[in-house]
Amino acid sequence: MLDTHHSFRMSRLLTCFFACLLIGQDSASAQRCMEALDRGVVALNCGDEGVFLSWRLLGTEPRDVGFDVFRQSGDSPLVKLNEQPIAGATQFRDLHADLTHPTRYWVQTVGAAAGPGDVVELPASPPEQRYLSVPLRPPEGYYAGDASVGDLDGDGAYELVVHMTGRGRDNSQSGMTSQPILHAYKLDGTLLWSIDLGRNIREGAHYTQFMVYDLDCDGKAEVVCKTGDGTVDGIGKVIGDADADHRSQPRQTGSPFSRRRGSGPREGYVLKGPEYLTVFSGQTGEALATVPYVPRRHPETDDPTPGQLKDVWGDDYGNRVDRFLACVAYLDGERPSVIMSRGYYTRTVLAAWDWRDGKLQQRWVFDSNDHDASLKFAGQGNHSISVADVDDDGRDEIIFGSLVIDDDGSPLYSTGLGHGDAQHTSDIDPERPGLETWSIHEKPGSDDPGIELRNTRTGEIYFSDAQGRDVGRGMMADIDPRFPGAEFWGGTRSLLSARGERIGPTPRSQNMAIWWDGDLLRELLDGVSIIKWDHASGVEQRVFDGRSFGLSSNNGSKSNPCLCADILGDWREELIARTSDSRQLRIYVSTIDTQHRMVTLMHDPQYRLGIAWQNVGYNQPAHPSFFLGHGMKPQPNTPIRTPE
């Protein structure tokens, strides 16, 4: 039998050794501390198509490393399945398995022993299915909403953090909401902890932005989010005043926040009382540190009047003041920081925090009020956020809609084009140096463009269109192999090339994207359905319809799965969605053969950070730091290290 404990220790040592070998000579390329992932082996019974196996190629090992696959059926001896080392795509199809017995598979590098995550077991007579099932325990009246992943316990495998959602409200809507709840699950359905954010945190897409990331590089991820009086952590400890209720009540006739707006009472807003930022242990859910949230609603008081709110944020009922975004970024190029923001229609404030040695320390604060209004730093944010090293100095910047914040908290530039719902940053046009950003805007009645492609480093606009339009959706992905780079669409009736050429009709889907089949083009993800764009005929072809399997999407008309990310197997992405009764999360894995070998996307820092912010606001797909598509260059080496 293979010594899995010894081999896992050896794999960690080899990981560190090869990480050093992969470091380039560029002084700007510091080693970023990232997750020490296991092999992520997945095995699925595909019936007549055999057992499909898929696993990770790690960013800390040689790109040409060979693999061996072994099988053990019942008590039979271990059998090696491949005649030659597997040097291509990190997958294997076993057409001769006897599944009447429990069957174990090992995947290991040539000449090495298997580690804990390198082994996967199928029970006797496993069902024929292309997904893994994660049992859930939703509270009564709740369903599984947005999710994120992190290695919460340091075993090299991902766990899921799920936002359990009840009755929510948009910021523009009055009314009481359910209390937001966060659950953490292992992939076998073990509930690790539950955090109840309490009555003083409103439920809705723009309120609770939760970050899951290993912020102190100890091998275990933390969870960070805004909290309030009455938040209960994963071990039952209460933050602040357990009895406080800061929600506005319609029966409080003397309250300035109980007046009517439109046809309904202005109830349920939380516009007074202390606000906090809390770091939770990913392993136990325990609150490790809590500090005042930055910025406060008003610089002088936790209980501002409507007039004071309007003076600072532009309205008096909570629509603009309570617009939150969040992300994680490598501001020093080596270790991650967490960034929390407030406001994007008018005043905009971002606060960066470091979690080091058990202390939450503020790194910097950007406040648009600290700058001349002519510079157009206020009112530039989107309902989403992106993070990338836009100036190639090894440190990350925050793409905050039309505004980009440098790693030191200073503004890099603003296009001044204002708010929008979606943005996408990657190497969209590989024939141009650096990264590009495709963004949409709400510009009704103006001369400004509703869509634009720009140089993410300088803000130079390469292409724009849809002047004076309110563009609500915009998407970017490489879906047409006939044209270099990625394509983008939204705001016009044309699909556009990376150079802004009109090359055909637009897909109807403008929601998300997923790398699913065997080629390098990206498929479209609309709710819980996967769509292939037929570039020759200009039509959508549905290749997977999750609704027919009892899946449901989240976020109303925004229609997202719980998560789309490369969390298992090879470099392709998994579709993670809830069943209609929210008793399961299902992780759908592509079992389509591919010829392409790539390092797991989760070891590309920009993509990994994109998975961290995918739950924020209006969910957007994560994009890597390089062009991944038809005709791409070899995947670049990214200098990373993992916790020892």
UniProtKB/TrEMBL annotation:
Location of the region described as Disordered in the Swiss-Prot/TrEMBL record: 238-269
Keyword Ribonucleoprotein: no
Coiled coil: none
Domain Rhamnogalacturonan I lyase beta-sheet: 33-110
Keywords recorded for this protein, A-Z: Lyase
Class of this enzyme: lyase
GO terms assigned for molecular function: rhamnogalacturonan endolyase activity
Residue span, Rhamnogalacturonan lyase family 11 C-terminal domain: 141-636
Xref: InterPro entries: Ig-like_fold, Integrin_alpha_N, RGI_lyase, RGL11, RGL11_C
EC number(s) per entry: 4.2.2.23
Family matches, as PANTHER family: RHAMNOGALACTURONAN LYASE (EUROFUNG)
Protein name per its UniProtKB record: Rhamnogalacturonan endolyase YesW
Organism of this sequence: Stieleria varia
